[in-house]
Amino acid sequence: MxxxxxxxxxxxxxxxxxxxxxxxxxxxxxGMSQDELNECKPAVSKENxxxxxxxxxxxxxxxxxxxxxxxxNSPWLGSFGVDPELASALPxxxxxxxxxxx
Length: 102
Known about the structure:
The chain has 102 residues and is mainly alpha-helical. It has helices at residues 2-20, 34-44, 54-61, 65-69, 84-93; strands at 28-29, 32-33. A hairpin with a 2-residue loop joins strand 1 and strand 2 (32-33). Residues 1-26 form the signal peptide. One of its GO terms (biological process) is systemic acquired resistance.
């Protein structure tokens, strides 16, 4: 249960940070580029969610989960259209063998 909440919070923060950053500025957040962060947004959005794309899942494979877990208590989680259930399911949907625990 705790790892599910941690994964959910981690993915929500990825999406939130991607939404806040101007797309004309290249960023690298916790081992994920702006493009990789953007790949995961549709899979965790409240409106018309999609299955995670292969580029999203590939990005999660090399993401720095310890870094991402540092964002888990952000007060912004619900304010950007992120569905917590979808976010928590993302690592499993991507087939990550060692889903993060924060």
